[in-house]
Backbone:
C-alpha cells in the first residue's frame, strides 16, 4: 500500500470512540444541545511532537457527505459543534496534504481526535455514464475505500462517499497516496467497481460506464443500515458494505487486497456477485438479481458483522435493514521509560505512539484513528519528567515508536495482552545531523 499503509487510517481509521488521554474527550457537556455532539482536535501538517503550521494555507476540516466544515485555527486546532449523533468520516486537508479518519459522535458529548497528521494526497475524478448512448448519470453514488480493508481486525477505516453532479461528474479529494477500490452505483444500473491508484499531487481518472438493468424476471433487495448507539434511536450510517451471495457459498472472514484487473470486481472481502456501499442516508439498493436463496451481509470494520438469509423473488423488491453496533476492542497497557542512549538519563517530552501492522495508528505519519471502545484508550502520549510513558491500547497494536527532536526514531515490536500490563523501555540515539531524521521509506 506504500504511503496509504501509513494510515492511522487510516485506518481510517473502524468509527467510534477511542479517546486520547491527555487530549480530553469523552466527557459530557451540558452546553451541547440534545441529540448533538462536538468534535475537537488539532491538525499538524507535518510529523512533530507539537502542533506545527508550516504554511499559511487554510486547513479545512469537514465531515464527509455533509455540508458541515470548519477552518483550523492558526495553531491547527479546530472545533466542530452541533454535529448530529452518528459515525462519520472526518477529512482534514490543505494544498496537497490530507488525512481522513473515522469519528463516532455521541449525544451531548465531546470527541477529541487528538493530533491529525497530514500526508501527501491526491484525488480521484471521473465521469459516470450509461452504456446506452453514453449519457451522463447524475446522483450516482461513488464510494471509495483503501484496499487495506480488514474484517477480522475490526480496525476502522474511512469510507469516502459522494454523488455525481448533474453532468455525471464527481471528484473525491484529500485521498492519501495509495491503492483504492471505487464502487459506483445508481438505482436501475448494475454496480461497477474500479481498482485505482492515487498518487501525491495528482488526479486519478475514475470514469465508469453503468449498464442499465433490463432483464425481465429478476428481483432485488433494498434497505437501510443503522448504527445502534448506547443511548438514543438507531441512526443511519454510510459506508457499510452490503453484499449478496448464494446460500451455498461460504462467506470467508479474511482480508482482501483487490484484483489486479482494474475492471474486475475486487477480491474478498468484496464478495460477489452483488455488493454495494450504503449512501449518506444509510440506504442501499441491489437490483437485477436472479431469483433464488441468498445470504445478505453487512460489513464495516469496527462494527459487528451481520448476516441473514433472504429469498429473491422475480419482479419483486425485498427489504432488509441492518442495525449494527460498535465492537469494543480488547485493551491492554504498555508502559516504560524512554532514555537518552548517550547519558542514560530519562527523556521528558518524547512522543510515544502506538503502531498497528506497520501503520502509525496515531501521531507521526498517521493522524488519529478513532475506534470503538473505552474512553481511557490512548494511542499516543509524551513522556513525563521521569521519562515515563503509559499507553492503553487495543490488542491490534503491534509496535510502539518513540521520537524526539534531534534523535533517531526508535520502534519496538510488542504483543499487547488484553487486561495485562507489559513494560517496554526504549533508548533514543542522537541523530548525526542534529535535526529531525528524514521520514522512513513508505511501508516501514
Residues:
Amino acid at each position: 500500500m506504500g504511503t496509504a499503509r501509513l494510515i492511522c487510517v487510516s485506518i481510517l481509521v473502524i468509527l467510534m470512540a477511542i479517546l486520547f488521554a491527555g487530549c480530553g474527550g469523552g466527557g459530557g457537556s451540558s452546553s451541547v444541545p440534545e441529540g448533538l455532539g462536538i468534535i475537537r482536535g488539532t491538525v499538524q501538517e507535518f510529523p512533530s511532537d507539537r502542533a506545527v503550521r508550516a504554511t499559511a494555507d487554510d486547513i479545512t476540516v469537514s465531515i464527509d457527505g455533509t455540508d458541515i466544515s470548519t477552518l483550523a485555527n492558526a495553531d491547527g486546532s479546530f472545533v466542530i459543534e452541533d454535529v448530529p449523533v452518528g459515525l462519520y468520516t472526518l477529512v482534514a486537508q490543505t494544498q496537497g496534504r490530507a488525512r481522513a479518519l473515522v469519528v463516532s459522535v455521541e449525544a451531548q458529548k465531546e470527541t477529541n481526535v487528538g493530533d491529525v497528521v497530514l500526508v501527501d494526497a491526491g484525488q480521484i475524478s471521473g465521469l459516470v455514464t450509461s452504456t446506452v448512448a453514453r449519457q451522463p448519470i447524475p446522483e450516482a453514488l461513488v464510494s471509495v475505500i483503501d484496499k487495506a480493508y480488514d474484517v477480522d481486525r475490526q480496525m476502522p477505516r474511512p469510507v469516502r462517499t459522494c454523488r455525481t453532479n448533474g453532468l455525471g461528474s464527481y471528484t473525491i479529494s484529500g485521498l492519501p497516496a495509495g491503492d483504492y477500490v471505487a464502487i459506483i452505483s445508481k438505482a436501475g444500473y448494475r454496480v461497477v467497481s474500479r481498482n485505482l491508484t492515487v498518487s501525491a499531487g495528482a488526479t486519478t481518472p475514475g470514469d465508469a460506464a453503468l449498464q442499465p438493468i433490463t432483464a425481465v424476471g429478476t428481483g432485488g433487495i433494498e434497505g437501510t443500515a443503522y448504527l445502534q448507539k448506547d443511548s438514543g434511536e438507531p441512526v443511519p450510517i454510510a459506508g457499510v458494505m452490503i453484499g449478496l451471495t448464494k446460500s451455498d457459498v461460504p462467506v470467508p472472514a479474511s482480508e482482501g487486497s483487490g484484483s489486479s484487473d482494474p475492471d474486475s470486481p475486487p477480491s474478498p472481502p468484496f464478495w460477489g456477485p452483488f455488493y454495494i456501499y450504503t449512501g449518506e442516508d444509510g440506504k442501499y439498493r441491489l437490483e437485477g438479481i436472479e431469483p433464488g436463496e441468498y445470504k445478505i451481509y453487512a460489513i464495516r470494520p469496527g462494527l459487528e458483522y451481520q448476516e441473514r438469509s433472504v429469498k429473491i423473488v422475480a419482479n419483486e423488491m425485498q427489504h432488509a435493514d441492518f442495525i449494527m453496533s460498535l465492537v469494543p476492542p480488547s485493551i491492554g497497557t504498555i508502559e516504560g521509560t524512554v532514555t537518552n542512549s548517550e547519558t542514560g538519563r530519562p527523556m521528558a517530552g518524547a512522543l510515544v505512539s502506538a503502531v498497528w501492522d506497520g501503520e502509525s495508528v496515531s501521531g507521526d505519519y498517521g493522524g488519529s484513528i478513532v475506534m470503538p471502545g473505552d474512553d481511557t484508550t490512548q494511542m499516543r502520549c509524551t513522556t513525563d519528567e521521569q521519562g515515563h510513558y503509559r499507553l492503553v491500547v487495543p490488542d491490534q497494536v503491534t509496535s510502539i515508536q518513540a521520537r524526539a527532536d534531534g534523535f533517531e526514531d526508535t520502534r519496538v515490536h510488542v504483543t499487547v495482552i488484553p487486561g495485562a500490563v507489559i513494560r517496554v523501555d526504549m533508548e533514543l540515539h542522537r541523530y548525526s545531523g542534529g535535526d529531525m531524521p528524514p521520514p522512513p521509506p513508505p511501508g516501514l
